[in-house]
Write a structure and sequence with these properties.
The chain is mainly alpha-helical and 132 residues long. It is 68% helix and 0% strand. InterPro entries: DNA-bd_HTH_TetR-type_CS, Homeodomain-like_sf, HTH_TetR.
Amino acid sequence: MGRNRSFIEAEVVAQCAEIFRSTGYEGTSIDDLVQATGLHRGSLYKAFGSKRGLFVLALRQSAGPAMPTHDSTDLLLVALMELAPRDPEIRSIAFGILSGVAPRHTPQSLGERLLERAREPRANEATTKDSA
């Protein structure tokens, strides 16, 4: 008999989504997710299957009915740029978000947010400059 979960899945997914938004999918390691959530590696794997499984849940969670925020837009951009070209499920989720009954994201809004992200300093850049 296994132990009961001592975490709220939606909260863990939200914490992981923040890491994916800030460092991208490829730039995020399981260790980053373990550190962000405070869960053990085994608990993450058992509950979510993989880093990709966590990303899929985060993307689906961000596709809710609310108005888009920078957070949801950033996660969609990560999906489109890093995973959609090679992952049919991610591509399908992204297509669903973009082609909903009342699409919340437009090409212009995605392009504007992409440019804003390019201008934002990254935490690791500040650390590198400080140590130089």
